[in-house]
């Protein structure tokens, strides 16, 4: 039952907001008593903490599944972006990360600490792969570009309250990051991915 509560709460928090969802809402959605929830979680903050840990695990499992498909490095980044868009397809116009930072700063800091090493590892793998494929320049200082992109992405999510605006800026950041590293071959692949994205968006 505990795992079911965490799973449902995670889904509701991401769709409707960490602040607005109450224990009553979760109990009603699951057709259980609020007392049952409190049997496993002494308060909402503990439930949010465990829910964010589940989302963290799910996100990185999905990233691993995208990487396992062995796309080229540039397409891989676009596929991961698409996956994030589907996972965090909130009906709110508020970024889940922005909400977490604003209303539950201590939990946000713990989430951030968890993300640092894993995200930097993902970025490092992608850049190394792109260099080997001839899509990124071989004279790059990999660690510097890892930090550049990490700072860009987390700054956007920390400081942009609108989900729609955050997604728009993230795409700009991905293009900016890729162009800064790309060879001529990489620019061709980037333009292909941007063109495919425009076709999908206009359908």
Automatic annotation (TrEMBL):
The keyword DNA-binding applies. Pfam families: TetR_N. Residues 1-59 form the HTH tetR-type domain. Keywords: DNA-binding. Residues 22-41 bind DNA. The keyword DNA-binding applies. PANTHER family: ACREF/ENVCD OPERON REPRESSOR-RELATED (PTHR43479), ACREF_ENVCD OPERON REPRESSOR-RELATED (PTHR43479:SF11). This is TetR/AcrR family transcriptional regulator. It comes from Flavobacterium plantiphilum.
């Amino acid at each position: 039952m505990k795992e079911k509560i965490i799973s449902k709460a995670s889904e509701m928090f991401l769709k409707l907001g960490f602040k607005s969802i109450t224990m009553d809402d979760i109990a009603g959605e699951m057709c259980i008593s609020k007392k049952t929830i409190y049997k496993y979680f002494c308060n909402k903050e503990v439930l949010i903490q465990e829910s964010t840990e589940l989302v963290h695990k799910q996100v990185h499992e999905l990233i691993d599944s995208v990487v396992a498909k062995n796309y080229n490095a540039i397409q891989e980044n676009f596929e991961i972006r698409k996956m994030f868009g589907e996972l965090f397809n909130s009906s709110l116009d508020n970024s889940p990360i922005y909400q977490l930072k604003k209303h539950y700063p201590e939990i946000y800091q713990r989430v951030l600490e968890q993300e640092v090493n894993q995200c930097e590892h993902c970025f490092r793998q992608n850049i190394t792969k792109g260099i080997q494929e001839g899509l990124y320049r071989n004279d790059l200082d990999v660690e510097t570009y890892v930090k550049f992109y990490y700072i860009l992405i987390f700054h956007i999510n920390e400081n942009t309250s609108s989900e729609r605006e955050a997604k728009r800026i993230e795409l700009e950041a991905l293009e900016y990051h890729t162009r800064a590293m790309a060879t001529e071959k990489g620019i061709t692949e980037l333009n292909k991915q941007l063109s495919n994205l425009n076709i999908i968006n206009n359908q």
